[in-house]
UniProtKB/TrEMBL annotation:
Superkingdom to which the source organism belongs: Bacteria
HTH araC/xylS-type domain span: 184-272
Molecular function in Gene Ontology: DNA-binding transcription factor activity; sequence-specific DNA binding
Database matches in Gene3D superfamilies: Homeodomain-like
InterPro entries: AraC_XylS_family_regulators, Homeodomain-like_sf, HTH_AraC
Pfam families according to UniProt: HTH_18
Record keywords: DNA-binding, Transcription, Transcription regulation
PANTHER family linked: BLL1074 PROTEIN (PTHR46796:SF15), HTH-TYPE TRANSCRIPTIONAL ACTIVATOR RHAS-RELATED (PTHR46796)
Cell wall biogenesis/degradation as UniProt keyword: no
Name of the protein this chain belongs to: AraC family transcriptional regulator
């Protein structure tokens, strides 16, 4: 097994566009031809991750051995605050979605809190229909056809919405995103007319994490997106400027979050992911106001 980030072959990434904006932040098709199997590191983000593989199953988890890992063609990861890992075979193709956590109940009838710090077989949540979808997508000859079929599937499920998350939780999420994770919890509580303790309680019930944890994920995601844009464009990267523009007190606080969320420094993560980012990886997990 190759180390995380080791350059062992070629990756291709295809942007799937806006399949269902109210439920999916981004969609990317991927294919790989590697010299040997490798391990991919999934960073924490304010989105759920759904992976549908078309070839061999992958092993996923926060540790790739023991009870903390699972093997599946369909992987669903909940909100998490530590890096997740996917062990991938030499030849692999599939689609990865960044799913809005508050849309999970609307799409599939369960709150995101049920997936907190887990990477599971997606069939446990979505049912047998998602396996039929995966097989259909694998049989289609082109990426546009695959994305069209996936979008139709998502729209069909959205049409069956019976209940959604609490409006104050939805509004709190929007407020955190608008402030890119830099707003205070007292200001957020006042905005949604709840006490801070009650806000934390309803947030955890729906999402499995506190509003403070989501704010940190939003701030980190904003910094990650700035890094991805710079690396993809081949532009000079000033991590101190990234930290400042993303609401960190200083560069060291950005490094601290990277070490927690990625298990490495920003520069080490960039070195590991450089070719993938330049090839089109690193799709956004949240949309922020300009």
């Amino acid at each position: 097994m190759a180390d995380v980030g080791e350059d062992v072959g070629e990756w291709r990434f295809v942007d799937g566009g806006r399949l269902l904006p109210e439920a999916v932040v981004s969609a990317v098709g991927y294919s790989s031809k590697l010299e040997r199997p490798c391990t991919h590191r999934g960073l924490p983000s304010p989105a759920l991750t759904l992976v549908l593989t078309f070839d061999e199953p992958v092993i996923s988890g926060f540790e790739l051995s023991g009870q903390d890992s699972s093997t599946s063609h369909l992987v669903l990861g909940g909100l998490h605050t530590r890096p997740a890992y996917i062990s991938q075979p030499k030849a692999q193709s599939g689609i990865q979605l960044a799913v809005r956590p508050l849309a999970l109940r609307q799409l599939f009838g369960v709150p995101a809190s049920e997936l907190r710090e887990q990477a599971i077989d997606a069939r446990d949540v979505f049912g047998a229909g998602v396996e039929r979808l995966r097989e259909q997508l694998a049989d289609l000859p082109t990426w546009p056809e695959r994305f069209a079929a996936l979008g139709a599937y998502l729209r069909e499920n959205t049409a069956e919405v019976t209940s959604g998350p609490r409006p104050d939780v939805v509004e709190a999420w929007k407020w955190i995103a608008w402030h890119r994770g830099t707003g205070s919890m007292s200001a957020l509580a006042r905005h949604v007319h709840l006490g801070e303790r009650q806000l934390t309680s309803v947030f955890k019930a729906e999402l499995g994490v506190s509003p403070k944890a989501v704010s940190r994920l939003m701030r980190f995601e904003h910094a990650r997106q700035r890094i991805v844009r710079a690396v993809s464009a081949g532009a000079p990267l000033d991590l101190a400027a990234v930290a400042h523009s993303s609401g960190y007190y200083d560069h060291s606080h950005l490094v601290r979050d990277f070490r927690q969320y990625a298990g490495s420094s920003p520069s080490s993560w960039i070195a590991e992911e450089l070719r993938n980012l330049q090839a089109g990886a690193g799709q956004p997990a949240e949309e922020f106001p300009v």
